[in-house]
Amino acid sequence: MQRLLIVLFVIIAISGCTQPYPPLDTVKEVDLQRYLGTWYEIARYEHYFERGCRDVTATYTLKEDGEINVVNRCTKEEDAKIKEAVGVAYAVDESSSKLKVSFFRPFYGDYWIIMLDDDYRYAVVGDPSREYLWILSRTPKLEEDIKNKILAKLPQMGYSAEPLIWTPQGE
Fold first, then answer.
1. What are the CB-based long-range contacts (under 8 Å, 24+) for 87-93?
2. DSSP letter, residue 63
3. Integer CA distances (angstroms), 92 to 40, 97, 112, 154, 157, in order
4. Which long-range contacts (CB under 8 A, 24 or more apart) does 73-80 make?
5. Which among 114, 118, 140 has a CA at the least distance from the CA of 43?
6. How far is CA 162 from the centre of its chain?
7. pLDDT of res. 18
8. What per-residue confidence (pLDDT) applies to 14?
9. Which of 13, 146, 159, 170 sits most deeply, having the most CB atoms within 10 A of its CB?
């Protein structure tokens, strides 16, 4: 009996450690037709698949089967070569604010739209683990007041602005 209690205590303690953040809220609704097109990456959390990238864009187009075609492009800083990754995405619910994206099927990752301008001029994308974060804009530059507004909201969502890498665009 004592062993059972110890095992239960360990399981409860471990499960409590795996969820360090409250649930991540997304925007209420995304009109995918308006979201489609090209977005410029303004900032990101660094990950191996974008290390050394500048001039980063993501282009979304709707496929006939309802999936979203995803094309991510960047210029590698060390040799100025264009790097391209092609994937697919789909909305997981009617709000279209939570998507699953794959560049290596059958593995999918979370792509949650957590901030979106009413006019679809900028978006902030993250995931429930808070490991990924992107600030996107329809233009290569984002106005300073909008950038500050986004940065002010990040801590409320469990994100820190400190690890952000500001993506050079056309410099």
1. 88/63, 89/60, 90/66, 91/30, 91/32
2. -
3. 24, 8, 10, 24, 21
4. 74/50, 76/52, 77/52, 77/53, 78/52
5. 140
6. 16
7. 52
8. 37
9. 159
Amino acid at 53: C
User: Which amino acid makes up residue 120?
Assistant: Y
pLDDT in tens, 69-81: 999 999 999 999 9
Cα 23 from chain centre: 15
Burial class (CB in 10 A: 0-12, 13-18, 19+), 144: exposed
Give CA separation, 81 vs 128, 129, 148, in Å: 32, 32, 32
**In this prediction, what percent of the chain has a pLDDT beyond 70?**
88
Structure tokens at 90: 């789909």
CB 70 within 8 A of CB 101: yes
Phi-psi region at 139: left, alpha or beta (left = phi > 0; alpha = psi -120 to 50): beta
* Pairing label, strands 37-45, 122-126: unpaired
Tell me which residue has tokens 């991540």: 24
- Sign of the torsion angle spanned by Cα atoms 159, 161, 164, 167: positive
